[in-house]
Amino acid sequence: MSIRLDQTVPFGRWLGEYELMFSLSASDRQRRILDCAAGPASFNAELTADGGTVCSFDPLYQFPGDEIQRQFFHKLDQVIDQIRATPEHWVWRYHRNPDELRQHRIGVMERFLADYRTGQGTDRYVCGALPTLPFEPDQFDLALSSHFLFLYSDHFSQAFHLESIRAMTRVASEVRIFPLIALRAERSQHLEPVCERLQRDGYRVSIEPVGYELQRGGHDMLRVYRP
Questions:
Q1: What is the pLDDT of residues 181-200, one digit of tens each?
Q2: How would you class 22 by CB atoms within 10 Å of its CB: exposed for 0-12, middle for 13-18, buried for 19 or more?
Q3: Do β-strands 32-36 and 140-146 pair in parallel, antiparallel, or remain unpaired?
Q4: DSSP letters along 27-66, please?
């Protein structure tokens, strides 16, 4: 098993990682983007500073920045130690080694906190949890979900995944999800049945390779368009 966790971990990623994980083009960066289960990613801060429009959505935003930071550091070394103990499950290209990964995650947290402390409670940081999205139909052009759906497949049911994806396609015409492997470093057991059900219901579904891989084998994203 690659990582053992009892709950989701408040880790975030840079804009550069998002661009690779989701194959974001220059035109994608101009779209209205919803980031579901965004956690303490600096994606919102960075893209907003560059003129983009992003709404980050996560139950973590019930907490002030100092508490999010506390939760992050409480889990950080536990996760990094497990990564060091399972070298066969990791690919060191974007990050060169566990120490650099640790420093990158701290840098992301710092960038997130600087933005969150002024943005909390605004329409850029919205507190809530999938599958309930408090947004209007077509309020966004693109919905993203990084390192939550499918990653925590042993914690959340197939029905939860299906309901969450349908909710995301209600508020955005296109959904992209990365990665498609679970914490045990194997393809999620929910992926195939969820895709089959969506296709039967008229959704357009594709699995596409992307230019990012940290967990070995985690180099694909799911793209879904509603009927």
A1: 998 889 999 999 999 999 99
A2: buried
A3: parallel
A4: TGGGSEEEEET-TT-SHHHHHHHTT-EEEEE-GGGGS-HH
